[in-house]
Write a structure and sequence with these properties.
alpha/beta, 22% strand, globular, Spore Coat Polysaccharide Biosynthesis Protein SpsA, Chain A, eight-stranded mixed sheet, two-stranded antiparallel sheet, 10 strands
Length: 273
């Protein structure tokens, strides 16, 4: 009797702040390819301020596929935002304890979405993987060539995962350029070209302002960057939030975009140029 190979489960893992619209979009693009969505929300932002619980269970969600975890414990006092971000990420990793060692852990920011066809019969022969993504800002089809390809979603088998923060901070494509004797640089990495989409800041000026005032990049939290009117002007003129001289480019929506977005253009009309 031939023993069938056990299927490795695919776990799509994110830390969640407040963007239900993007998670709902993510869910619909990936739901037929992912075994479990692991969503971790904290009752505190990365600066340690109390926040409300924001995740909304939509009627369309298959609740057997979504495992939602709430981190209720405050972050340690006087820790910097980056350490708090790392704490939330490691809590997220603990939420995958049910997974087998051979299962795949994908970690993304919520607006980084892997191209679904890459997940069909997914197999990673390297220790780690990085999905190189087209980057879009403010609107689904406002292309950001300056940060494309974006090093987005990372993946590893559960048995190879030291920490989520390690996966995100230390697994980078530039590691492949180091000599073999640089043992501090992990080089067993596969790059997935045309790996998906980074739909960055697909939200209102008010929502972007809240994000800038609460996320780990505290250097962008003052009024120079986080003022709603300033943000609105940059969106309307296709300009970079952080004043790096970038001007984004409108491109036509075509079959290189997620099928779910193409099929629901009217629903997404507000977010398509």
């Amino acid at each position: 009797m031939v023993k069938l190979k056990k299927k490795n489960k695919l776990l799509d893992c994110i830390t969640f702040f407040d963007n239900n619209f993007m998670f709902q979009t993510r869910y619909n693009i990936l739901v037929d390819h992912i075994d479990y969505f692991i969503v971790c929300e904290s009752l505190f932002d990365h600066k340690g301020n109390k926040k409300k619980q924001n995740f909304i269970w939509k009627d369309e969600y298959n609740k057997d596929k979504i495992k939602y975890f709430l981190l209720k414990k405050p972050f340690p006092k006087n820790t910097d935002p980056w350490k708090n971000q790392a704490i939330q990420r490691e809590f997220l990793l603990s939420c995958t304890d049910f997974a087998d060692n051979e299962d795949y852990i994908f970690f993304s920011d919520p607006d980084e979405i892997v191209r679904p066809e890459l997940l069909t019969n997914f197999e990673l022969t390297n220790k780690y993987g990085i999905f190189l993504m087209d980057c879009f800002n403010y609107r689904f089809n406002l292309f950001n060539p300056y940060e494309s390809p974006w090093e987005g979603t990372r993946v590893a088998k559960k048995k190879n995962l030291k920490s989520i923060d390690f996966l995100r901070q230390k697994i980078k494509s530039k590691n492949l350029n180091y000599n073999f004797y640089r043992l501090d640089k992990e080089r067993n990495i596969k790059l997935f070209n045309n790996g998906g989409w980074h739909f960055n800041n697909i939200m209102s000026p008010k929502e972007i302002s809240i994000k800038l005032k609460t996320f780990a990049h505290s250097e962008f939290s003052d009024e120079k960057f986080a003022n709603e009117e300033v943000i609105k002007s940059k969106i309307n003129n296709y300009l970079d939030l952080f004043e790096r001289g970038h001007k984004y480019k409108k491109i036509e929506l075509n079959n290189s975009f997620p099928e779910f977005i193409i099929q629901n253009k009217e629903k997404f009309n507000k977010w398509i140029l």
